[in-house]
Amino acid sequence: MAGIRKTIIGRGFGRIRGYAENGTVLLLLVLSCAAWGFLELGEAVSAGGTHSFDQRILLLMRSAADAGDPVGPPWFEEMSRDVTALGGVGVLAFLTLATGGLLGLSGRWRTMWFVFLAVGGGLLLSSLAKAGFDRPRPDLVPQFSLVHTSSFPSGHSMMAAVTYLTLAALLARSQPLRRIKIYLILLAALVTVAVGLSRIYLGVHWPTDVVAGWTAGAAWALLCLLAARLLEQRRAIEPEPPERD
């Protein structure tokens, strides 16, 4: 009996040590913080506790003479519209399909279907969150673009985080070089942040909408990464190659 107990305890410690070595514990911690941040923001927004803060930040990016005119030269506003399009459904769908095609051509069929499910699940989660909170769009800024959904969380910000971070994380798994892995993750994070800031600058979202989109999207992307690691251990998706510097 004592020998069996030692074996079980040894395996348990070995598994915990393995999780620590591959960063699973850190990922779980960051995921928990992101999910907690989203829930706290949702509670504050529902109670109206962020309205004054949102107004101040939004007006900082608008002309004092005309709230419909963002600060900065016209070319910067046009560039912001181009950046915000990177979080649109059309662009994200194209990138997801293109990445899936690349994985399919590489023979990674199970990973391809995992990508489609991960991004599709994020889109469903975003739609459910918008329907649940049903927050109106900013009323301080004239809405020149067509908007058909509620404000919280920002769909562009959330889906940019879901799509870019998930695709980068899964593509990074297929790269043996650590510097390429880091580059892909940093690039995805940069695009995600830029899309969110463009939504505030253009006045189509409150700042807390964008932060909520970032936290919810990051939490979903991290959950998908952890799921991918678990599926890899069970050989349900293709394994990643050994990492090199």
Structural notes for this entry:
72% of the residues lie in helices and 0% in strands. The protein is mostly helical. The chain has one domain (23-233). Helix 2 (24-46) packs antiparallel against helix 9 (207-233), helix 5 runs antiparallel to helix 6 and helix 6 packs antiparallel against helix 9. Mean pLDDT is 83; it is low at 12-21. The chain crosses the membrane at residues 20-39, 83-105, 112-133, 153-172, 184-204, 210-231. Keywords: Membrane, Transmembrane, Transmembrane helix. It holds the Pfam family PAP2.
SSE order and pairing:
Elements: H1 2-21, H2 24-46, H3 51-60, H4 74-85, H5 89-105, H6 109-133, H7 155-173, H8 178-201, H9 207-233
Short description:
With 245 residues, the chain is mainly α.
